[in-house]
């Protein structure tokens, strides 16, 4: 193709799909269409040079003309039909096949030049071979055959000498020069296109190497910083659980230790995905991701941590597409984390509504109770949680809304469409 995928996309945006498809169809068949066009246009010129009273450039072969005039009238009519219809039609057929069977056209054109002084097929044959084929020895041989045939036709005719010079210039030199120029240009363009494609592939490889290097760097930094901190948190929570003076403190420390160990396991899986993707040595791990069936465990963990969470489900509970379930779980997880951070002690309602065409997930918390004098300020978040949720929900073609209530509460609500062609999460092979 003469244009790339990006150019094709711009053409589609500008002119629509129909004109682009027509243009692609024509471009892929342009050479065959050109062969038919040349064959049709050459037919009348071949017939004209065959049946003209004065013959071709060499004014015809004297022997052929004498033989034609000596024949009876019916045979002269038949000879005229052969010269005016059959031979031009045969030449047109050979012009359609000129790029697959060039020798046939060269041989017939040399015979017509010798017998009838017709230079049209010879000119087209020399141009075709010079522009489409690289065998210069055969080209020189057929050029010599054409010159000899033309010279013989001029020798037996009464044409002036200037006509022979004109034939050599227009019938041999011009098509050869034009054909060699077109062939060289086509070969040069092909080499440039191949070089551009090779450079593009090398650019993709370099970009892929850069991506792999960046993934390796991210995995290394996450391991050196995040994994180390989480490991310290788990160890300290384990020590607090063992040395706690009361049962409530030991229970909370145990929850912190369990949560930290789960986070460390998920972090190791993410590091494995990054490193395996960067190395390309094996498939990435496909451990099960949390789905709606894991909401009970998530709500139970927050209950254990002291949060008043009310969980309700409406509609026909059924397996949903894996992406929808994972997205819904992450929405609830992030909303509960924000409620625990910004509204500690407030009552939180989690509602999951199974619709026929969509899944609605809403997490709403009441206004936080007033803090006592010694209560610490809630930690400020970085603001990336909701931004990440927006991106995750957008990937599932859903909508996410988050905002405060007039009384000071807060709600996070996501609506995820359900498509019939997606596979339910229970039927995935990686679960």
Automatic annotation (TrEMBL):
<keyword id="KW-0597">Phosphoprotein</keyword>
<dbReference type="Pfam" id="PF02518">
    <property type="entry name" value="HATPase_c"/>
</dbReference>
<keyword id="KW-0472">Membrane</keyword>
<dbReference type="InterPro" id="IPR003594">
    <property type="entry name" value="HATPase_dom"/>
</dbReference>
<keyword id="KW-0902">Two-component regulatory system</keyword>
<feature type="compositionally biased region" description="Pro residues">
    <location>
        <begin position="366"/>
        <end position="379"/>
    </location>
</feature>
<protein>
    <recommendedName>
        <fullName>histidine kinase</fullName>
        <ecNumber>2.7.13.3</ecNumber>
    </recommendedName>
</protein>
<feature type="transmembrane region" description="Helical">
    <location>
        <begin position="73"/>
        <end position="97"/>
    </location>
</feature>
<feature type="region of interest" description="Disordered">
    <location>
        <begin position="365"/>
        <end position="386"/>
    </location>
</feature>
<keyword id="KW-1133">Transmembrane helix</keyword>
<feature type="transmembrane region" description="Helical">
    <location>
        <begin position="139"/>
        <end position="156"/>
    </location>
</feature>
<keyword id="KW-0418">Kinase</keyword>
<keyword id="KW-0808">Transferase</keyword>
<feature type="domain" description="Histidine kinase/HSP90-like ATPase">
    <location>
        <begin position="325"/>
        <end position="419"/>
    </location>
</feature>
<dbReference type="Pfam" id="PF07730">
    <property type="entry name" value="HisKA_3"/>
</dbReference>
<feature type="domain" description="Signal transduction histidine kinase subgroup 3 dimerisation and phosphoacceptor">
    <location>
        <begin position="214"/>
        <end position="277"/>
    </location>
</feature>
<keyword id="KW-0812">Transmembrane</keyword>
<feature type="transmembrane region" description="Helical">
    <location>
        <begin position="33"/>
        <end position="53"/>
    </location>
</feature>
<dbReference type="InterPro" id="IPR036890">
    <property type="entry name" value="HATPase_C_sf"/>
</dbReference>
<keyword id="KW-0067">ATP-binding</keyword>
<feature type="transmembrane region" description="Helical">
    <location>
        <begin position="163"/>
        <end position="183"/>
    </location>
</feature>
<dbReference type="GO" id="GO:0016301">
    <property type="term" value="F:kinase activity"/>
</dbReference>
<feature type="transmembrane region" description="Helical">
    <location>
        <begin position="104"/>
        <end position="127"/>
    </location>
</feature>
<dbReference type="InterPro" id="IPR050482">
    <property type="entry name" value="Sensor_HK_TwoCompSys"/>
</dbReference>
<keyword id="KW-0547">Nucleotide-binding</keyword>
<dbReference type="InterPro" id="IPR011712">
    <property type="entry name" value="Sig_transdc_His_kin_sub3_dim/P"/>
</dbReference>
